[in-house]
Structures are given as structure tokens and as C-alpha cells.
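wait is this the right file?? whatever heres the structure
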């Protein structure tokens, strides 16, 4: 019986933390980054501000939790795109990333485009990257392309380059919604095609 009490407290703490993250997501979705404060978060869930501080010491910690939550959600969406052909699978993952960002502009801007996101040390950045389920899926899809001979190079490096290109497209369309990119679906398809063609061209240059 004595061993169950710590487990119960741990479970309760995890549940409250999840509730706070969900509340933070609602605030950001409704009003953007400016709506996310400890005081407003406490009011959203009916807790005292000091209670929130026991779970998140500052706003940066909430941002990191939101980032982890966003990556988990993105990974679940990306997992639905898994055709047999390796390059089609990779193309679908990149496209899903871009669509996810455009469908959740406030959350994306807060998590991926906020200047308040804390600067991570090299070990912290590597740990965060290793624990990113969406990046793991992307890297695995790239590795399948490399194994099948469709692409050449280091899977991790290629995945990061593709992520950079996709992030650039999302950031542009969120920041400048009137950008003359034409039909959105066509633009996304062109971004994905150009990204993969560029990776292929880079491999060809390296082979000469």
C-alpha cells in the first residue's frame, strides 16, 4: 500500500500538467502568444498562479512543453502517411508538416517562431532533437529512400535540410498570408517537389 501513494501522486501530477498544457494550447489558439501568461493560464484552469509555478517555473518551460506536445501531435498525423513507395512516403511526410503548420498558425508561431523560446545548450539541443518523434519519423523515411537508392547521403542531415525547407514555407505563408504564391495546394506540392529535387541534385554533385 505504501508504494501506491507515490505512484498515485505522480499520476495526479502528470494529469494536472497535461491539463495545463491543454489550457495553454487553448489560450494560444484563441489569441496567440500574447495570451499565454502564467496568470491567464492559472485562471483558465481555476488554479492559483503559485500552483502553476510548481509545474512550470516560467513561460519558457510552458513553451517547451507546448513544443513537445506539438511534435507528438504532428508525429501522429505524419504516421497516417505511409505508402509503400519510399519517396512517396517521404513526400507525404513533408507535405503533412506544412499543412499542420498552416492549419495551426497561432500554435506554430508560438512554438516555432517565438523569439522567447529559450536558447538551448548543445547537449540540450541534441537531447531535444533525439526525442522529437516527428523528426524521427522524417529521418526514418529518408533512410528508407537511402536504403532503396532513391536518395544518397546521411539520413539525419537530409532530414534536417528538408525540415528547414518545410519550416521556411510555413513561416512565409503564416507571416505573409497575401504572399503571391498562387493556389495553396499547388504551392505546397511545388515546395515538396523542389525540396526533394534539390536533395537529389546535391547527391549528384557529391558523386562527381
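ok assuming it is, sequence goes like this
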Amino acid at each position: 500500500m505504501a508504494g501506491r501513494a507515490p505512484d498515485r501522486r505522480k499520476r495526479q501530477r502528470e494529469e494536472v500538467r497535461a491539463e495545463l498544457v491543454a489550457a495553454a494550447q487553448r489560450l494560444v489558439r484563441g489569441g496567440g502568444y500574447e495570451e499565454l501568461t502564467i496568470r491567464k493560464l492559472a485562471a483558465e484552469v481555476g488554479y492559483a498562479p503559485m500552483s502553476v509555478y510548481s509545474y512550470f517555473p516560467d513561460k519558457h518551460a510552458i513553451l517547451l512543453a507546448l513544443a513537445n506536445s506539438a511534435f507528438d501531435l504532428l508525429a501522429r498525423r505524419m504516421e497516417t502517411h505511409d505508402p509503400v513507395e519510399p519517396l512517396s512516403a517521404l513526400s507525404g511526410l513533408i507535405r503533412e508538416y506544412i499543412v499542420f503548420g498552416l492549419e495551426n498558425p497561432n500554435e506554430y508561431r508560438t512554438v516555432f517562431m517565438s523569439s522567447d523560446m529559450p536558447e538551448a545548450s548543445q547537449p540540450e539541443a541534441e537531447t531535444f532533437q533525439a526525442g522529437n518523434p516527428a523528426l524521427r519519423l522524417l529521418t526514418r523515411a529518408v533512410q528508407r529512400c537511402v536504403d532503396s537508392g532513391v536518395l544518397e547521403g546521411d539520413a539525419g542531415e537530409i532530414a534536417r535540410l528538408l525540415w528547414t525547407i518545410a519550416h521556411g514555407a510555413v513561416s512565409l505563408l503564416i507571416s505573409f498570408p497575401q504572399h503571391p504564391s498562387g493556389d495553396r495546394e499547388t504551392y505546397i506540392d511545388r515546395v515538396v517537389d523542389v525540396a526533394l529535387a534539390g536533395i537529389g541534385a546535391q547527391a549528384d554533385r557529391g558523386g562527381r
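The chain has two domains: 1-57, 65-207. so i think its the right one actually
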